């Protein structure tokens, strides 16, 4: 069996100019990054005319058994192309942290991939490096301001801005810097986030233009004065230089699937600690250039889809036409109590015990958000007909069809049936609504997500979180949407509670305002904004042979 990277490296890629022509892009509207990558000019946003239909791909709560959300998104896009629909898939860029950590590559899998796979998984067009540089420029200007006399009166114990690096490095979660004093800086406690958790990543992904990017950067809060007044990047006169670093990174990236379907890959905030969606500009570009724009949101529907719908769609005025909920029989049996080593045999009782996880996600999409949905089951060889029939039966009780997806093995051909069901759903009008009204008080918005989406019984706030909510409300930020930072492995804030847990409370330990992004970040449980590497990092398998070919990358 060929690995993903072998399949990708054997692909006969088309020159990126040919992919651009499929979308009707002119030479003036693209900027080449070699033969197979390009940036799309922001002028495309000014095009008038009817936009395409937006299809969101989300998933059940992830397990070690795998679900295949990105693979399904790519295979669906290829399937739509195969049945004659002008299609573009809009995805996030992978972070080096997971690529070299547990996950490995994040460009799809099997015969449903975006290519050039190695470039996309590594440096790509340099977007993440630019975001990290802008983040750390602001950190340097902040500490330099304090060192040079602190005219703004910034309280060094109330600094909220952290440095970042696009790597899983637990050693950097908490640091002390400026040690030595004097010419070495002002000593203080500090820390690092992974680049995808930086507010600049969120700002870039929600910005609608270069001028909007600069305004959002200027609004970002970096800390507070001794009197409790917020200090912004604009106060530090840093927004212009940061925009200069980000002006090229703001342009969406154009690549292709293995079958030559245009793919717009741009931005990469994590869905467990950020809003988990690719850029607004990428999604809007896909909608302007294609009849169907397929996009995905990170992790399970309680994280990525909730934030896609309540934050991104609200901010950008987007309305999905259909939702695909991805799952596997294997993963559902893990939610039903089986270990990964026990998934090879038919077990209807374990499957039935795990099915409530899928059904809860499905109910949220169809009943809370009122969107039409289809369940895509990635079929594995060990899945039995009886197990598939049980999934179909339970979903049918909610009025939702189940389609078997074989895109990993067959590419777009294995996604044609799913494509036809998506077209059927997308052609019908829907009554999309948000989970909550953003004008509600902060606690009520948090409670709405916890009770309506997670199905918890309530929320517990630490004294620190209570104080932070009261302060951000007093400062005028109470009307922002909430971005929940939560474990991806459970509906609850406890990663060990699999399936569809009930009668639990979610603990909110910290709330901070991301004024540039336009939401309040709510940290729950033990969620971390700087991951660590596993005992055996994926990086150990990555190498380059004597011909310069990368090996071992997923």
> How many angstroms does the end-to-end distance come to?
13 Å
The percent range for strand residues is: 15-25%
| Structural classification | alpha/beta
Radius of gyration, CA atoms, in whole angstroms: 23 Å
Number of helices, where a helix is a run of at least 4 consecutive DSSP H or I residues: 18
Helix content: 25-40%
Summed up, what is this model?
This protein is of the alpha/beta class and 554 residues long. The chain contains 18 helices and 25 strands.
Spell out the blueprint of helices and strands.
Elements: H1 4-9, H2 16-22, E1 30-32, E2 38-40, E3 53-59, H3 69-82, E4 87-91, H4 96-100, E5 108-109, E6 112-115, H5 117-121, H6 127-147, E7 154-159, E8 163-165, E9 175-177, E10 188-190, E11 192-194, H7 199-206, H8 210-219, E12 221-225, E13 230-232, H9 239-246, E14 253-257, E15 262-265, H10 280-289, E16 292-296, H11 301-316, E17 322-327, H12 329-335, H13 348-368, E18 373-378, H14 385-396, E19 402-405, H15 407-410, H16 416-426, H17 442-454, E20 458-461, H18 463-474, E21 482-485, E22 505-514, E23 519-524, E24 543-544, E25 550-551
Parallel strand pairs: 3-16, 3-17, 4-15, 4-16, 8-11, 17-18, 18-19, 20-22, 21-23
Antiparallel strand pairs: 1-2, 2-14, 5-6, 6-14, 7-12, 9-10, 12-13, 14-15, 22-23, 24-25
Helix pairs in contact: 3-16, 6-7, 6-9, 8-9, 12-13, 13-14
What does this molecule look like?
With 554 residues, this protein is of the alpha/beta class. The protein is built from 18 helices and 25 strands. The strands form 6 sheets. Strands 1, 2, 3, 4, 5, 6, 14, 15, 16, 17, 18 and 19 form a 12-stranded mixed beta sheet that branches. A 4-stranded mixed beta sheet has the order 20-22-23-21. Helix 8 crosses helix 9 and helix 13 runs parallel beside helix 14. The longest helix is centred in the first third of the chain and has 21 residues. The chain is globular. The mean pLDDT is 95.
